[in-house]
Specification:
With 87 residues, this protein is α+β, with helices and mostly antiparallel strands. The protein has a single domain, classed as Aminopeptidase (3-Layer(aba) Sandwich), CATH 3.40.630. Helix content is 21%, strand content 29%. The chain contains one helix and five strands; from the N terminus they run βαββββ. The strands form two sheets. It has a three-stranded antiparallel sheet with strand order 1-2-3, covered by helices on one side. A hairpin with a 3-residue loop joins β4 and β5. The longest helix is centred in the middle third of the chain and has 18 residues.
């Protein structure tokens, strides 16, 4: 399980938004590790997560970072007609 962030003040949490090309390798690794922990391990959903959509130019990686680790992440996908949707 990820870091225990109970008791973390919202004032110490930073919102980040980046395209795939803007992600430093260590940040990308941490985000992918968090996704595997949540979806594969905790939710027992052993499905292919890396489907190529992470690298789409319209995808934005959104995450909250706290001093003790990432608090959460999402990767909205841009769809021309429908607007944004969760990846």
């Amino acid at each position: 399980m990820g870091p225990n962030l109970l008791g973390t003040s919202i004032a110490s949490v930073t919102l980040h938004v980046a395209a795939f090309a803007e992600l430093p390798p260590a940040t990308l690794y941490a985000l992918l590790q968090l996704r595997v922990q949540v979806f594969v391990v905790e939710q027992r959903c052993p499905y292919q997560d890396l489907d190529g959509r992470d690298t789409d130019p319209g995808t934005r990686h959104v995450w909250l970072a706290a001093p003790r680790g990432s608090a959460g992440s999402a990767w909205p996908l841009r769809r021309a007609a429908a607007g944004w949707r969760a990846g």
